[in-house]
Amino acid sequence: MADAVTMDKIVSLCKRRGFVFPSSEIYGGLGSSYDYGHYGVLLKDNIKQRWLSAMVQERDDIVALDSSIILHPEVWKSSGHVGGFSDPLVDCKFCKKRYRADHLEDAQCGQRPSKRPGEAADCDLTDARQFNLMFETRVGAMEETGVPVYLRPETAQGIFINFKNVAGIARRKPPFGIAQVGKSFRNEITPGNFIFRTLEFEQMEMEFFVPPDQADEWYRYWVDERYAWHRKYGIRESHLRIRPHDADELSHYSSGTSDIEYLFPIGWSELEGVANRGNFDLTAHTAASGTKLEWVEQDGSRYTPHVIEPALGVNRSMLAFLVDAYDEEVVAERDRTVLRLHPQLAPVKAAILPLIGKSEDMTGRARKLYEELRQVISVEYDDGGQIGRRYRRQDEIGTPYALTIDEQTLEDGTVTIRERDSLAQERISIARAREHVLDRLAEPWTSPRVSSP
Length: 453
Ligand code: ATP
Hints:
Helix 2 crosses helix 9. The radius of gyration is 25 Å and the shape is globular. The protein has 13 helices and 23 strands. The strands form 7 sheets. It has a 7-stranded mixed β-sheet with strand order 3-9-10-16-13-12-11. The chain has a 5-stranded mixed β-sheet with strand order 20-19-21-22-23, sandwiched between helices. A 3-stranded antiparallel β-sheet has the order 5-4-6. The protein has 453 residues and is an alpha+beta fold. It folds into 2 domains: 12-76 and 146-322, BirA Bifunctional Protein, domain 2, CATH 3.30.930; 348-442, Rossmann fold (3-Layer(aba) Sandwich), CATH 3.40.50. Adenosine-5'-triphosphate (ATP) binds next to strand 10, strand 13, strand 16 and helix 9.
């Protein structure tokens, strides 16, 4: 069976069900910017929680940090971003469109979308020029006297400049890591492909500081570990791969990088990057700030740790989970769209549905169950309209379980629990419903989706 999913279908589901809206829509929209609605916020939060849990809660060698978005401007000079964080751009003097010189193969000519830039007779492309991706702003009241600063293009530098603060009190010695989730900003000029590439986005980055002779080993460890995380939360093996960078692709700071790529509707693309940054950053900040960012052993010997960095975009991860989960099927001669999300990622874990919305006995029991479950998980109560329609609505937002209160509930205190993927229904006691749902949510899960060729 071929994949039913296209980017258009994902965009439309996200808008219809309130996951993601185009930003500033009433003003005509702003390119590569999106706003997140109720279910989008819940899904993003679940992704961040699962990441933080894997990094911090389930390990004892990583601590958390939340650094500022606006840092001292010298940070970005030392890190190499002022000088080197740029994309090569070309302009078409004829149609005035701007393209990334290294992405011309994938771009459309502004005049003739069937051709690539430079292919049509009228195209007049300039030579490539470097364009810095950092957004600049000013700190201070006056436009003229304010100090120019940057919105961070990555969260990592906030971690490096806090190395001494954290290492001093974290009671950890290398190998240990610092994890951070927060917004980053890049003045991207290539079309965004929905939330794949946006001007502002959240990153989940972890810098793992290791003795220099252990860097290779930990680099390989983190590539495998991060691959396994995406698999654990349901991404199909057929749609996930590891691609080591060629030497000419490596960033200025990196001695080894692997992209974990996902087969998005736009083709195989980077989902997460895992980089061996060596001691580039700590050395650069030590030289520029005069503060020694190094590790001092008990015996007084010292070294600058090397750093392994897994870096994942929350929004890009959300897109991969949505694409991987999106499914369409025909059930009882009716079309069904279903998000087969990992239950722990699903925005709503269970829907509580009184079969007959006008029956006060049923709505009363349902409300009571809803009040009980909402104390521990995200649940929704819905008593409006036909039951089939209510199920379909929950399928579309990926709710793994629906608990229906019916006549029999009033007689014997049982409810039906309907499972989103298999559509199997069984009766369980209402008194045990909370425990039952929590147990099932904790079980390992693999996607029931058929892999496309
Ligand atoms: P790309 O080549 O796609 O521009 P990158 O190699 O510049 O990405 P990194 O600097 O390695 O990206 O950033 C780490 C992660 O942050 C990426 O793997 C991606 O998940 C996410 N990310 C980077 N830029 C964006 C963006 N503009 N919008 C959304 N997510 C992003």
